[in-house]
Amino acid sequence: MTDAQDEPSPLPPPLPAATATGAPWQPLPRRGALLYAIGAGIGFAIPAGLGLGLAGSTPLGLPRIPFVAAAALLGLALGILVGLLRHRRIGWKLDDDGFATRRGGLWRNETLVPVSRVQHLDLERGPIERQLGLATLVVHTAGTRMAAVKLPLLALADAEALRTHLARQVEADDAL
Predict the structure, then answer these.
(1) Could you report the per-residue pLDDT of 110-126, keeping only the tens digit for each?
(2) Does 17 fall in a domain?
(3) Which of 55, 62, 81, 95 could cross-link with 22 by S-S, CB 3.0 to 4.6 Å?
(4) DSSP reduced 3-state for 62
(5) Considering the domain boundaries, does residue 106 fall inside one?
(6) Which domain holds residue 168?
(7) Total-model pTM
(8) pLDDT tens digits, 38-75
């Protein structure tokens, strides 16, 4: 590692204060885009290579291996592009209404977790996330089939600040 990687990164700006119109949507940090891109690239490359590999024939009876490799590389490139676009279309915000996540471009999915529904909060960090200073925030909610909202690849400082802020709000609501 270089000396620059050993130094702690500067503190992120404080979480935006809630306003009457709500806080602005916050994007995920760019360093997490690599993980999204690799995951989507592999997810596209394997079916593309297997699909052509299982196909019965190739043009002009040529060997199948170059076509399988080309299909896998094309799938990898397409998957990387899709992964980068997906990463750019994920955001979060914390305001008076609660914690919200947003995903998607054409088909947008927004999830709002009111603070009164938060049961407990977890941070998950795999080995690659730890190396990149990222974390997944898991907000466990009360009484639903899908009782957790996950926000992956947050900057560790943001994830810890969100967890602390939400936990304080839950404690304050419980005290009332």
Answers:
(1) 999 888 888 889 999 99
(2) no
(3) 95
(4) coil
(5) yes
(6) 91-175
(7) 0.73
(8) 999 999 998 888 877 776 566 666 677 787 888 889 99
pLDDT beyond 50 at 12:
no
User: In Å, how far from its chain's centre is CA 143?
Assistant: 24
Give the number of other CB atoms < 10 A from CB of residue 150.
12
Is residue 4 in a domain?
no
Is there a domain that residue 140 lies in? yes
Structure tokens at 9: 């990164």
Question: Half-sphere exposure of residue 100, counting CA atoms within 13 Å on the CB side?
Answer: 17
Q: Are 121 and 154 in contact (CB under 8 A)?
A: no
pLDDT at 91 over 50: yes
Rounded CA-CA distance 103/49 in Å is 29
| Domain count within the chain | 2
**pLDDT above 50 (res 134):** yes
